[in-house]
C-alpha cells in the first residue's frame, strides 16, 4: 500500500506505552489542560428565530401552490425556444459550412476546377437563377466570366429557406458583389415554383433555356 | 404539476415538519422523562467554566483563567486517567484512518491543481490519455472526497466515539481492517479512473467492484461504533453522537442505493444528484458538525448554548436534506413537482443551518479571543462559519431565478469547494491538531508551521473562491445573452481560472506544510516542547507570556 506513515505508526503502537523516551508527564500533559466533556444548556429558541422559521415554512407551502399551475408533462419549466426561422441566420456561417471548400473564402473559386462567385454573371443576375442553382444543383458545361467549367455543383435543398436566403444574400453582397436582397418567404416561393423538378440542371445550357440568359 | 399534486405536496410537507417539531419540543421539554437530567450526565462536577486551550501550561492558563474570572483549576485525576484510556483504546484505527487521509490529501490536491491549470493552459500534459482533463478531474474529486475528507472524517469520528460514550472503544481492530480495505478501494478506484474505467457519473466514477471495498471498509468502521454504543456508560447521547451515528448509517445506504443497477435515463440523473448532494449533506456535514459540536465547547470551556437548537439542527437536517439534490436538475426533463420539492427543501435547510450557527455563536461568544490563539479552535470556528455561508449560499442557489444563471458555470464549482473544503476540511484540520498530540504524546513542534498552514489554506481558499464565483456568475450571464457568441462565455473566465490555479496552489502548499508537520509529530521529531502551540502569542496577552517565560526559566 502507499501509506508509509500509517504502517510505521501501527508498528509503533505497542512500543508507545513502554517507551522510556516518553515520560509520564508528557503523556498526561495534554489531558491536564483539557476541559470538561461538552454538554448542553437549556436555553429556549430565540424569538426571532422562531418567527423566521414560521415565515420560511409559510413561503414553502405557498411556493408549492404557486407552481401548481405549471403543466405536469413538460419537465421542469422548460419553455420551447422560438423556431430557428425567427432567429437571424448568419449567411457567412452558412457559406463557411457549405460553400467555402470549393468557392473559397475569397469567392474566387479555383481556376479550372471551381467557378468564381465574386463578379460572376450567374450570381449577380436576377436572383431566381442562383436560387435555382442552390435548390437543384448543376451538372455539366458552364461558361462563367468567359471561362468554361465542367463540374458538379451539388444540390443544397436540404438547407432551410432561411439559411438559403441568408447565404444567397451573403454571396450577392460580399467581395465586390452588390445586388438586391431577398428574404426567406421569397425563397419558399421559389422552392415551391420548381417543386416538381428532379435532378440537377444540365449545364449552363439548360439554365438558360429554363430561366433565361444571365443579365447583369 | 397540477393543483392536486401541489396540495398533496404541501400537506405532506406541513405534516412532516409538524411531526418533527413536535418530537423536538417533546425531547427539549422532557416530555418523555429523559431530558434535562439526562443531559447533565456528561457534565462532571466542578468542571464548568474551565477552558481547554492547547496553548497553555498551568501558569499561563491560570493567568487567562483569572482574566476570565474563573475559579481555580479542579482536575479530577480519575476522569483524566479515564480519558487517556479512551484515547488509547482507539489509537491504532484512528491513526490508520488519519495518516492515510493525509496521503490522499496530498495526491488529491496535486490532481486538483493539474486539472485547474489545464482549464487555462489546455495543451499542457496532453501527451498521455492518463493526464487529460477528463481523467485528472474525476481523479481529483474522488481522491479528495473519499480519500482525504471521508477517511479523515472517519478517523475523527472513531476518536470521538469512546469520549462521547465514556467507554473504551470496542472492536477497534475492525476499523483498522476497514481502513486497509478503504485504502485498497481508493487505490484501485484512482487507477481505474486514470486508466479510463470510469462509470461516467459525477461522484460515482469508481467502478462498482471497487466500491465494494469502500462499502465494506465503511461498514467495518461502523462496527466499533455499534459495539461501543451497546456497552456505553452514559444514558444521554450528546449531540455529536447523533450526527456520528447518523452519518455512519446514511453513507452505506447512499452508496449501495446509488450503485444498484436499477436506474436508467432521467431516473439515473435524479439518482446521481440525489447521491452526490447527499455525500456532502448526509455524510460529510454530520461528521463535520459532530466534530464542531465537540471541539467548540471542549476548548472554550462553555457548554453548548441550547439543547433545543441542537435538536432542531439535527432533525431538520435529517428531514430536509435527502430531497435537495434534485435542484441540480432545475430546467431539466424532470417532473416539475420533484424539482419544486427540492427547491423548497433546499430553502428550508436554512432552518437547521441557522440553528447550528446560533448555537455555536452563542457558545463561543464570550471566548472569541481564543480563536486567535488555539489552532484547533481557529480552524474549527472558521469551518463552522463557512458551513453557515455555504449552506445559505446553497439555499439561494437553488431558487430558479438564481439557478438559471449559475447552472453549468464555475460558480457551482466554487460553491462545492466552500462546502467540502471551507467547511469540512477546515474542521478536519482543526480536529487533527487536537487529536494527534494526545495519541502520540508529542506536541506540535513548530508554531510557525501551524500559522503558515492556516494562512496558506485560508488566503489560498479566498483567492480560489471569490474570483471563481465572480467569473462563474459572469460566465452564466454571458451564456444567457443570445446576442453574444458562446466563446465569449468561455474566454471571459480566463483571468478567474488563473486566479483559481494560484489559490489552489497555495492551498496545496499549505497541505504540504501540514503533512510534513504531521509526520514530525508521528515520528516524535522536531524540538521537544512541553507546551502546546499557541498562535499569535503577543496578541493582547503580553503579561501572561512574560509570566510564563519567567516560570519556565
Topology of this protein?
The complex is a heterodimer of chains A (about 220) and B (about 550).
Chain A (H helix, E strand, L loop, with lengths): L3 H9 L11 H9 L14 H20 L24 H8 L1 H4 L17 H4 L3 H9 L1 E7 L2 E7 L7 H12 L11 H10 L7 E2 H9 L5
Parallel strand pairs in A: 1-3
Antiparallel strand pairs in A: 1-2
Helix pairs in contact in A: 4-8, 8-9
Chain B lengths: L2 H26 L7 H5 L17 H10 L9 H13 L1 H30 L12 H33 L6 H23 L13 H23 L8 H21 L5 H36 L6 H14 L15 H13 L1 H15 L5 H4 L1 H23 L2 H7 L3 H31 L6 H34 L5 H6 L2 H29 L19 H11 L1
Can you give keywords for this protein?
heterodimer; A: 216 residues; Cytochrome Bc1 Complex, Chain D, domain 2; 10 helices; elongated; B: 553 residues; Cytochrome C Oxidase, Chain A; globular
Write up this protein.
- The complex is a heterodimer of chains A (216) and B (553).
- By secondary structure, chain A is mainly α.
- Chain A has a domain at 89-211: Cytochrome Bc1 Complex, Chain D, domain 2, CATH 1.10.760.10.
- Chain A has helices at residues 4-12, 24-32, 47-66, 91-98, 100-103, 121-124, 128-136, 161-172, 184-193, 203-211, and strands spanning 138-144, 147-153, 201-202.
- A 3-stranded mixed sheet of chain A has the order 2-1-3.
- In chain A, a hairpin with a 2-residue loop joins strand 1 and strand 2.
- In chain A, helix 8 packs across helix 9 (184-193).
- The relative contact order of chain A is 0.11.
- Mean pLDDT of chain A is 79; it is low at 1-20.
- By secondary structure, chain B is mainly alpha-helical.
- Chain B has a domain at 305-538: Cytochrome c oxidase-like, subunit I domain (Cytochrome C Oxidase, Chain A), CATH 1.20.210.
- Chain B has 21 helices and no strands.
- The longest helix of chain B is centred in the middle third of the chain and has 36 residues, at 265-300.
- The radius of gyration of chain B is 24 Å and the shape is globular.
- Chain B starts with a helix and ends with a helix.
- Classes of the chains: A mainly alpha (216), B mainly alpha (553).
Amino acid at each position: 500500500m502507499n501509506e508509509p506513515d500509517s504502517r510505521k505508526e501501527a508498528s509503533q503502537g505497542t512500543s508507545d506505552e513502554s517507551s522510556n523516551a516518553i515520560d509520564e508527564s508528557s503523556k498526561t500533559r495534554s489531558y491536564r489542560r483539557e476541559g470538561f466533556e461538552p454538554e448542553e444548556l437549556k436555553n429556549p429558541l430565540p424569538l426571532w428565530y422562531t418567527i423566521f422559521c414560521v415565515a420560511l415554512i409559510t413561503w414553502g407551502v405557498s411556493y408549492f401552490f404557486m407552481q401548481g399551475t405549471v403543466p405536469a408533462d413538460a419537465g421542469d419549466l422548460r419553455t420551447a425556444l422560438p423556431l430557428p426561422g425567427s432567429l437571424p441566420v448568419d449567411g457567412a456561417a452558412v457559406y463557411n459550412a457549405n460553400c467555402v471548400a470549393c468557392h473559397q473564402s475569397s469567392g474566387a473559386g479555383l481556376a479550372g476546377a471551381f467557378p468564381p462567385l465574386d463578379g460572376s454573371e450567374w450570381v449577380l443576375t436576377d436572383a431566381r437563377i442562383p436560387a435555382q442553382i442552390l435548390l437543384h444543383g448543376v451538372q455539366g458545361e458552364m461558361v462563367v466570366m468567359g471561362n468554361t467549367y465542367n463540374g458538379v455543383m451539388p444540390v443544397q435543398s436540404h438547407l432551410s429557406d432561411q439559411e438559403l436566403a441568408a447565404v444567397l444574400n451573403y454571396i450577392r453582397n460580399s467581395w465586390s458583389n452588390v445586388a438586391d436582397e431577398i428574404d426567406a418567404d421569397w425563397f419558399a416561393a421559389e422552392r415551391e415554383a420548381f417543386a416538381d423538378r428532379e435532378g440537377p440542371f444540365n449545364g449552363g445550357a439548360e439554365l438558360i433555356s429554363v430561366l433565361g440568359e444571365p443579365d447583369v | 404539476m397540477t393543483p392536486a399534486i401541489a396540495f398533496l405536496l404541501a400537506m405532506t410537507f406541513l405534516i412532516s415538519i409538524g411531526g418533527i417539531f413536535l418530537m423536538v419540543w417533546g425531547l427539549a421539554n422532557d416530555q418523555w422523562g429523559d431530558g434535562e437530567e439526562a443531559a447533565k450526565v456528561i457534565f462532571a462536577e466542578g468542571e464548568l467554566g474551565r477552558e481547554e486551550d492547547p496553548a497553555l501550561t498551568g501558569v499561563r492558563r491560570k493567568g487567562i483563567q483569572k482574566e476570565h474570572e474563573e475559579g481555580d483549576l479542579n482536575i479530577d485525576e480519575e476522569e483524566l486517567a479515564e480519558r487517556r484510556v479512551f484515547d488509547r483504546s482507539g489509537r491504532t484505527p484512528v491513526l490508520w484512518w488519519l495518516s492515510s487521509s493525509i496521503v490522499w490529501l496530498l495526491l488529491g490536491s496535486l490532481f486538483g491543481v493539474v486539472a485547474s491549470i489545464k482549464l487555462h493552459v489546455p495543451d499542457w500534459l496532453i501527451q498521455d490519455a492518463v493526464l487529460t482533463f477528463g481523467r485528472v478531474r474525476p481523479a481529483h474529486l474522488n481522491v479528495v472526497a473519499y480519500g482525504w475528507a471521508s477517511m479523515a472524517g472517519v478517523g475523527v469520528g472513531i476518536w470521538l466515539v469512546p469520549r462521547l460514550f465514556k467507554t473504551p472503544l470496542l472492536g477497534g481492530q475492525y476499523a483498522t481492517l476497514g481502513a486497509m480495505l478503504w485504502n485498497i478501494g481508493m487505490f484501485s478506484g484512482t487507477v481505474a479512473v486514470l486508466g479510463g474505467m470510469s462509470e461516467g457519473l459525477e461522484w460515482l466514477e469508481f467502478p462498482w467492484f471497487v466500491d465494494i471495498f469502500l462499502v465494506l471498509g465503511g461498514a467495518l468502521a461502523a462496527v466499533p461504533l455499534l459495539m461501543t454504543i451497546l456497552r456505553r456508560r452514559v444514558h444521554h447521547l450528546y449531540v455529536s453522537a447523533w450526527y456520528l451515528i447518523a452519518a455512519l448509517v446514511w453513507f452505506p445506504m447512499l452508496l449501495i442505493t446509488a450503485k444498484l443497477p436499477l436506474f436508467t435515463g432521467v431516473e439515473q440523473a435524479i439518482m446521481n444528484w440525489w447521491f452526490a448532494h447527499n455525500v456532502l449533506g448526509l455524510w460529510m456535514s454530520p461528521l463535520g458538525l459532530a466534530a464542531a459540536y465537540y471541539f467548540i465547547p471542549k476548548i472554550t470551556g462553555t457548554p453548548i448554548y441550547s439543547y433545543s437548537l441542537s435538536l432542531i439542527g439535527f432533525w431538520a437536517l435529517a428531514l430536509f436534506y435527502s430531497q435537495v439534490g434534485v435542484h441540480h436538475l432545475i430546467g431539466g426533463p424532470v417532473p416539475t413537482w420533484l424539482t419544486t420539492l427540492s427547491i423548497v427543501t433546499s430553502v428550508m435547510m436554512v432552518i437547521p443551518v441557522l440553528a447550528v450557527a446560533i448555537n455555536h455563536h452563542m457558545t463561543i461568544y464570550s471566548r472569541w479571543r481564543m480563536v486567535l490563539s488555539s489552532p484547533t479552535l481557529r480552524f474549527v470556528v472558521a469551518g463552522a462559519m463557512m458551513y453557515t455561508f455555504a449552506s445559505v449560499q446553497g439555499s439561494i442557489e437553488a431558487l430558479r431565478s438564481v439557478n438559471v444563471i449559475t447552472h453549468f458555470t464555475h460558480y457551482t464549482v466554487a460553491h462545492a469547494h466552500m462546502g467540502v473544503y471551507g467547511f469540512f476540511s477546515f474542521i478536519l484540520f482543526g480536529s487533527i491538531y487536537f487529536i494527534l498530540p494526545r495519541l502520540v504524546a508529542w506536541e506540535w513542534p513548530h508554531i510557525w508551521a501551524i500559522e503558515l498552514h492556516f494562512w496558506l489554506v485560508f488566503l489560498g481558499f479566498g483567492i480560489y473562491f471569490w474570483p471563481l464565483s465572480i467569473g462563474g456568475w459572469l460566465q452564466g450571464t454571458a451564456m444567457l445573452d443570445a446576442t453574444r457568441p458562446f466563446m465569449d462565455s468561455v474566454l471571459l473566465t480566463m483571468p478567474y481560472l488563473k486566479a483559481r490555479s494560484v489559490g489552489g496552489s497555495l492551498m496545496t502548499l499549505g497541505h504540504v506544510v501540514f503533512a510534513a508537520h504531521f509526520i514530525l509529530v508521528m515520528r516524535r521529531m522536531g524540538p521537544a516542547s512541553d507546551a502546546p502551540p499557541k498562535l499569535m502569542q503577543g496578541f493582547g496577552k503580553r503579561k501572561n507570556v512574560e509570566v510564563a517565560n519567567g516560570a519556565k526559566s
